[in-house]
Specification:
heterotrimer, A alpha/beta, B mainly alpha, C mainly alpha, A: alpha/beta, six-stranded mixed β-sheet, four-stranded antiparallel β-sheet, 9 helices, 10 strands, 23% strand, globular, B: mainly alpha
Chain lengths: 266, 299, 278
């Protein structure tokens, strides 16, 4: 297990948003967390890196490679964020500070995590950009000069720059058109294959679950109603809510085939 | 621009009170009709208005605003003598304002609803209601009359600068403390702050490198818009501290109906306002590269 | 803006306003009904007196009763400020409505003028006018009106521009309502709230401006008991009698504080935040 969430509860002042949730992610898994907006899946993912807004309270344990992330000090968690656990967000525009060039983001990221040589940082950044199919020229552009798909690919390059063990992808295609979204996910899948990282993939889109996930969990009103292997759940859903969701989801033929072999694991 | 010059020319000519009489009256001597006519001839007042304007315009582009009715000195010389003092005072006040507003605004935003925030809120609510000249009177009373630490009059080295700059700086800073606070709060709520945090950046780096610069645009906007109250504030403070800048000069000129001097002041102010507004525009472009690049693309 | 619970914050404001109002009533009664001092009557043998029953706040350097002058000064300062505001609103609002609704040549002309004013900060315009017409309170008021009406017209214009796109105006137009009716019956009631809020936020600024100009001798002239002018008059006597400095200053601070609170309260009530602030 690379990450075990154990009985995590998230509360605001007057409401329990996430209620005693447990799940665990294995190394190299593409773990999909499915649910409608408001089900608490995003907040759960934010609690992993202690990223929740201060007005929310968390209980429980989140064990990452044998260490409880929730009990880490601010300084310790900072070393985990970005380096061991990386985030990619839905709002690609908001992932970048508007007045800083793409290259400055790479430089800052690497510098903060201990890469002191400027040349080395530059080489590594260009390599990362090229590995997600983007040109070196983007290095000197501002975020607003890039398209949404480009930005999200840069976000992937950034997130995987330090080969983290876990990537948390929070609805990363929701704000993109379907073609760009497809490209972005293909890129993520390719990078996962290269680096062997685990992915916590938060989504409400069944098509993506079908194509990429190994295992999944379904969340409703702050609780996990069902979890397990993809085929088991898709073919034999137990919970009513799961059945409802599967029924309501648009069913796509096999027209768009993933270029990757997703049958690596059971 | 030509409109302004013409308006400003008319302003002096159409001003009530005969300038000739003003000039002659200064000496408090009895004035004979001949003297009046003679002077009128000398100053070209008997020529048609447009001709006068032509002469005036030529002189204007040579930065020759004529001579003061009261002292007889060229207006430009008087302004150039007062301008450095005024600029010095303004810069001093702005430094005081920054020294007060940046830490107080930042702390109020970072520790929202803490005692620092509450205190700065109360101080700025009261600060918005305190007239700058009254604040100055109190500071004079405390620091120069009672404690005798600082001079309260004139301009003679750094010591005379402290109280005026402090008064003006404090008077304008209350607005900026609250403005910076709310602007910072807005920035800290932005998505890119969360993204920075997710990348493991330290809170200090997030605040100073990412949030702070993002918060400056509204502050600069307000600075540009409230330039007038700054200029007015300078005038009041200069009078209060008998500080020999162009603000005090223009007030004296208004009292003595010294129109060329008033006119010179207005034109200098127009130039200064233009310069400051240009700087404001340029700093927008620095703060938000999107503006800069869009402009380049449309050209 | 979530600091105190809204209710509590409002009740504090209302409470302060009531206390202040009662204090004014008492002092007005005392000064004008019981004491009946002439605010302009000088009495050189009774100069710079301290507090007494006859002169609750003492007398100034010319032996005039300070409380009476303070109250009369307040009446005049607030009166003049309101006058300037009302005049600016009366001129500005129709201009704004017509220019925003009718557009066309009037609008373009108006925007020219307004931009011209924007290039010159308020204070400069005031200095120019007072410089041209000579220092006096009425010239200062004139200058304030001249500067302020543009702001109101601008505010109204921009509100009308957005409002005119809304459906109820379009429906009224399709129903064949004449433009004059639309402007007076539909647009005007919508706009007046915004104008009211902006005016109440302006009031404190105008009071400050009048007293500052009076202090430097470009506004109210002696012997008029304007607060700024009173401070200027009695400045030579501060060292021996600091009260003369305290009272008028405190009066300004209190009045401006209260009008600002009133403005904030109205702004919260009408919930027009961004437009009015800028």
């Amino acid at each position: 297990m690379i990450l075990s969430i154990e009985e995590v509860t998230i509360r605001s002042q007057n409401k329990t948003i996430v209620d005693q949730v447990s799940l665990s992610i294995r190394e190299g898994d593409w773990y999909a967390l499915v649910g409608q907006s408001g089900s608490g899946k995003s907040l759960l993912s934010q609690s992993i890196g202690q990223m929740l807004p201060p007005r929310l309270q968390v209980e429980g344990r989140i064990v990452f490679k044998g260490q409880d992330l929730l009990s880490m000090s601010a300084k310790e968690i900072r070393r985990v964020r970005g380096k061991k656990v990386a985030y990619i967000f839905q709002d690609y525009q908001g992932s970048f500070t508007p007045f800083r060039k793409i290259g400055q983001h790479f430089h800052e990221y690497l510098k903060v995590h201990g890469v002191t040589s400027k040349q080395k940082r530059y080489d590594q950044a260009v390599e990362a950009l090229e590995s997600v199919g983007l040109e070196e020229a983007l290095f000197h552009r501002y975020p607003f000069q890039l398209s949404g798909g480009q930005l999200q690919r840069v976000a992937i390059a950034l997130a995987l720059l330090l080969t983290p063990d876990l990537v948390i992808a929070d609805e990363i295609t929701t704000a993109l058109d379907s073609v760009s979204g497809h490209r972005v996910l293909e890129m993520l899948a390719k990078k996962q294959k290269e680096t062997g990282c685990s992915i916590l993939f938060i989504t409400h889109d069944w098509r993506h679950v079908r194509r990429y996930a190994d295992r999944l969990a379904i969340m409703k009103d702050g609780k996990i109603v069902e979890s397990g292997g993809k085929h088991k759940i898709l073919d034999h859903p137990h919970h009513d809510y799961t059945k409802q969701l599967i029924k309501a989801a648009p069913i796509l033929g096999d027209g768009l085939r993933s270029g990757l072999d997703k049958e690596r694991k059971a | 621009m030509l409109m302004i010059t013409f308006a400003s020319f008319l302003f002096v000519r159409l001003a009530p009170g005969d300038p000739v009489l003003t000039i002659l009256n200064v000496d408090e001597l009895s004035v004979s009709q001949e003297q009046v006519e003679q002077l009128r001839e000398d100053m070209g007042f008997n020529k048609p208005l447009l001709v006068q304007y032509g002469h005036w315009l030529i002189a204007f582009f040579r930065l020759d605003f004529g001579s003061s009715y009261v002292t007889g000195q060229p207006v430009m010389d008087m302004i150039l003598r007062g301008l450095p003092a005024t600029l010095e005072l303004t810069v001093g006040a702005l430094v005081v304002m920054l020294v007060v507003a940046i830490p107080l605004g930042s702390l109020s935003a970072l520790y929202r609803n803490s005692w620092v925030d509450q205190m700065s809120r109360i101080v700025s609510i009261i600060g918005a209601a305190v007239p700058s000249f009254w604040l100055g009177l109190i500071l004079i009373d405390v620091f120069s009359v009672r404690l005798n630490w600082l001079p309260s009059m004139g301009r003679d080295g750094t010591a005379t600068m402290i109280l005026p700059a402090l008064t003006l700086g404090l008077a304008i800073s209350s607005v900026y403390v609250r403005l910076l606070r709310s602007s910072l709060l807005d920035s800290l709520n932005q998505e890119f702050i969360r993204a920075g945090r997710a990348r493991g950046l330290s809170e200090g780096r997030i605040f100073f490198v990412h949030a702070f610069r993002h918060s400056l645009a509204p502050v600069i906007t307000v600075f540009g818009v409230s330039l007038g109250s700054l200029i007015g504030g300078v005038v009041v403070i200069e009078v209060l501290f008998a500080y020999p800048g162009i603000g005090k000069m223009v007030v004296d000129a208004i009292r003595q109906r010294d129109y060329p001097l008033i006119q010179g002041y207005i034109l200098i102010m127009a130039i200064l306002v233009f310069v400051v507004n240009t700087c404001v525009d340029l700093s927008y472009r620095y703060l938000n590269p999107e503006l800069k690049i869009k402009e380049r693309e449309t050209n | 803006m979530k600091r105190l619970p809204k209710k509590r914050k409002q009740s504090i404001q209302v409470g302060m306003a009531i206390i202040f109002f009662v204090a004014i009533c008492i002092s007005v009664l005392y000064a004008f009904v019981i004491l009946k001092h002439d605010p302009y009557l000088t009495n050189l043998s009774g100069r710079l007196q301290s507090m007494s029953l006859l002169h609750p706040l003492g007398t100034d350097h010319l032996g005039r009763d300070v409380l009476t002058r303070l109250l009369l000064g307040g009446q005049q300062t607030i009166g003049y400020s309101l006058l300037a505001l009302v005049a600016a609103v009366i001129i500005g609002v129709p201009f704004g409505i017509i220019s925003g609704y009718k557009r066309g040549i009037i609008d373009r002309l108006f925007m020219r003028v307004a931009d011209g004013f924007l290039a010159f900060p308020d204070t400069i315009v005031a200095i120019v006018l007072v410089g041209l017409l000579g220092p006096s309170i009425s010239n200062l008021i004139l200058a304030i009106i001249l500067v302020k009406w543009v702001n109101y017209a601008r505010l109204v214009r921009s509100t009308v521009l957005t409002e005119a796109q809304k459906e109820y105006i379009l429906i009224a137009r399709m129903n064949g309502l004449p433009a004059r009716k639309i402007m007076t019956k539909h647009l005007f009631p919508h706009i007046i709230g915004h104008v009211f809020v902006m005016a109440s936020l302006d009031l404190g600024k105008i009071i400050l401006l009048i007293s500052a100009f009076s202090y430097i001798g470009l506004g109210a002239q002696p012997p008029m008991p304007e607060w700024g002018a009173m401070l200027n008059d009695s400045r030579p006597y501060f060292e021996s009698k600091p009260e003369l400095m305290i009272y008028p200053g405190l009066a300004i601070v209190l009045v401006v504080l209260l009008t600002n609170m009133l403005g904030d309260y109205l702004r919260d009530r009408f919930d027009v935040k961004k437009e009015v602030q800028s």
